[in-house]
Amino acid sequence: MKAVIAREPGGPDALQLVERPVPALQAGEVLIRVAAAGVNRPDLMQRSGSPVPPGTTDVLGLEAAGIVIALGKGVDEFALGDRVMALLNGGGYAEYCVALAAHCLPVPAGLSLHAAAGVPEAAFTVWHNLFELGRLRSGDTVLIHGAASGVGSFAVQCAQAAGARVIATAGGAQKVAMLQALGVWRAVDRHLEDFVEGVNDCTEGRGVDVVLDNVGGPYVARNLAAMAMGGRHVSLSFLQGASIELDLQVLMRKNLSLTSSTLRPKSHAEKARLAVCIRSRFLPWLASGVVRPQIHAQLPLAQAADAHRLLEANANVGKVVLTVAE
Ligand SMILES: NC(=O)c1ccc[n+]([C@@H]2O[C@H](COP(=O)([O-])OP(=O)(O)OC[C@H]3O[C@@H](n4cnc5c(N)ncnc54)[C@H](OP(=O)(O)O)[C@@H]3O)[C@@H](O)[C@H]2O)c1
């Protein structure tokens, strides 16, 4: 089969389309004929040489959607021919991949496989971080940074579907327009406006209940300034730095909590638990179209390098997916 690997640690040009054997199926897994694979920022980091969990395939790709064509021993929740979207440890940028059945979700009838390829990473990340760690509830106000990205735009829609009000930041007019089209309460262009002022304007100084942050660094103090009493700050990543100086009095005064998590190293059992929650909470929204994956670009597998360049330039408004088959 055709698959994409990083020939050596480096830039997008290090990506190479190679021939690989179809992966062997183990107990509890399904073999998927891939229709499309989602592109995620950790793929860029893996390509650049960041370490990956031991035993991970060198074929890139943390999520894919396609058709189940073989069942491992003990799999009874899926049948041959089922349309699934899968969270993977790697191996999505390929014509075939294997996934634990417990990490697969059925693709609702109205959703194309190409769009579904952009769901798993966002769904697992948003469910755990925004709803479990962030404890987002109906009536809350949430500040979401990088909100026009794949994960961000999914978070925006889920938060709104759950009855929360969203203040969203993104860079540039096109992204702000996308967020306005999604119906956010306020979209802040991070290049032109101060998001703390935006939050204070909207909330009349009260602040937000939850922050979903992927920037870190100097954003954290500003996020804390924009938070309401009892607020929850959830860090997804640290694009402007992981080390900060923090005034603990701010936490104490407002009774704030800071939390964070990372999806890839979680245990199989924990990912399976998250999948059960996503089936009951997010699949109905995906089936009814209340939540729609926002797809910026669909590029053929052979153009994986272009897909990485799009993400590296922060040019994507929504998700970038690599198409493999119809
Ligand atoms: N912790 C976890 O388990 C987990 C799982 C999946 C993803 N993530 C993280 O969640 C974030 C969203 O994922 P994604 O795949 O949707 O990401 P993505 O498409 O790579 O988008 C991230 C967005 O962050 C903004 N950004 C980039 N560099 C920035 C900088 N230096 N300062 C401020 N903003 C910057 C950009 O948006 P604007 O220019 O529009 O602001 C960019 O579009 C990523 O950072 C990813 O690493 C974490």
Describe the structure.
With about 325 residues, the protein is of the alpha/beta class. It has two domains: about 1-120 and about 265-325, Quinone Oxidoreductase, Chain A, domain 1, CATH 3.90.180; about 125-260, NAD(P)-binding Rossmann-like Domain (Rossmann fold, 3-Layer(aba) Sandwich), CATH 3.40.50. The chain has eleven helices and 15 strands. The chain has helices at about 40-50, 115, 120-135, 150-160, 175-180, 195-205, 220-225, 250-255, 270-280, 285-290, 305-310; strands at about 1-5, 15-20, 30-40, 65-70, 85, 95-100, 105, 140-145, 165-170, 185-190, 210-215, 225-235, 255-260, 295-300, 320-325. Strands 3, 4, 5, 6, 7, 14 and 15 form a seven-stranded mixed β-sheet that branches. A six-stranded parallel β-sheet has the order 10-9-8-11-12-13, with helices on both faces. A two-stranded antiparallel ribbon has the order 1-2. α3 (about 120-135) packs across α9 (about 270-280). It starts with a strand and ends with a strand. About 50% of the residues are buried.
Name the CATH architecture of the largest domain.
Alpha-Beta Complex
The poorly predicted ranges are: none
Query: How many domain regions?
Result: 2
Determine Rg (CA atoms, Å).
Answer: 19 Å
How much helical structure, as a percent, in the residues? Answer: 25-40%
| Main sheet attributes: strand count, strand direction, barrel closure | 7 strands, mixed
Instruction: Find the CATH topology of the largest domain.
Output: Quinone Oxidoreductase, Chain A, domain 1
Count every helix, treating DSSP H or I runs of 4 or more residues as helices. Answer: 11
- What fraction strand? 25-35%
User: Helices and strands: which structural class?
Assistant: alpha/beta
**Ions, cofactors and other bound molecules:** NADP nicotinamide-adenine-dinucleotide phosphate
CATH class of the largest domain: Alpha Beta
Order of helices and strands: EEEHEEEEHHEHEHEHEHEHEHHEHE
